[in-house]
Amino acid sequence: MFILDWLKAILYGIIEGITEWLPVSSTGHLILIGDLLPFTFSKDAVFMAEFYEMFEVVVQLGAILAVIVLFWGRLWPFSKNKNSTEKRNTWSLWGKVVVGCIPAAFAGIVLDKILEIATGKDINGWLYNSVVVAVMLIVYGVAFIAVEHFNRNRKPTVESTDALSYKTAFLIGLFQTLSLIPGTSRSGSTILGSMLLGTSRTAGAEFSFFMSIPVMAGAGGIKMLGFFKYIGESGVSVPIDAWITLAIGCAVSFVVSLVAIRFLMDFVKRHSFAPFGVYRIALGALVLLFWLVR
Question: What is the distance between the terminal CA atoms of the chain, rounded to a whole angstrom?
């Protein structure tokens, strides 16, 4: 039984590592796979629901580590190999990342808490289900195809993250808040937004990666604290297999993310995002069909 859950954790890590960076919605895929292949190491339904809500966010920390490893030279401002201008550009990049993360932080913490107080359910409670995921997969699939068609004869005005203005970074951050709806895709919404704002695919993808670090680290920390709060208040004993499952998922997502990020950066140099739009539409339609006939 436990070995089966570990195998599921490997599958979850693979899915997270691939879908976190491709504009197809990692959360949406994890919700769908969670419905089909739930963990079974505990018979406590409440505990398993709390654990999986934490797992599907914290597993992203492995993916974040992959970004840090791959872009360490770009992200570390104290490198002895950088001159003063390069160090200044690195600090400026982090400043833009912080500015870009402000809208998502406000919406994800403040507005989410207001919604929970007003209705008794947070965003997860209202929107985390297969139907919402399917609809958003289709909507943003169409959006990707439409934006690529719109940009077909337009030349990007921003070719690198260094050329991004703070205003553009903030506007991209507004698009990032759309990813609070499962099935949207955090990378997808930010890349779409950056392209509409005149940023190249490569620069948009890179900035999306960089913004993921504080956003996903913050979300993972909040979910982990919430899980520990639940454990403290309920007195539930957490089985060792829960921690092993989480560790496996994070480790696999890290390794797979290393490959997925390299693939996407190479892909966008020669291709459009339209194929991802087609994939999203097909998957969304399949999920809706499954939901209607089950």
Answer: 27
Given the structure tokens 């008794």, which residue do they identify?
120
Q: What are phi and psi of 291, to 5 degrees?
A: -65, -35
Question: Phi/psi of residue 288, each to 5°?
Answer: -65, -40
Specify the residue for token string 């969670």.
34
Q: Which helix (H) or strand (E) holds 137?
A: helix 130-150
Entry pTM: 0.88
The tokens describing 2, both together, are: 């436990």
Per residue of the chain (294 residues), give pLDDT as tens.
578 999 999 999 999 999 999 999 888 888 888 888 899 888 899 999 999 989 999 999 999 999 999 999 999 999 999 999 999 999 999 999 999 999 988 888 887 788 788 888 777 778 878 889 899 999 999 999 999 988 888 889 999 999 999 999 999 999 999 988 888 988 889 999 999 999 999 999 999 999 999 989 988 998 999 999 999 999 999 999 999 999 999 999 999 999 999 999 999 888 889 999 999 999 999 888 888 887
Cα separation, 133 vs 151, whole angstroms: 26
Block residue for tokens 């990378």: 187
Q: Would you say 265 and 22 are in contact if contact means Cβ atoms under 8 Å apart?
A: no
What is the three-class DSSP state of 199?
Answer: strand
Cβ-based neighbour number of residue 155 at 10 Å: 8
Phi, psi of 211 (to 5 degrees): -65, -25
Question: Which of 215, 172, 174, 179 lies closest to 195 in space, CA to CA?
Answer: 172
Phi-psi region of 109 (alpha: psi -120 to 50; beta: other; left: phi over 0): alpha
- Stated length of the chain: 294
Tokens 């990020």 identify what position?
A: 261
| Of residues 243, 290, 286, the one with CA closest to residue 138 | 286
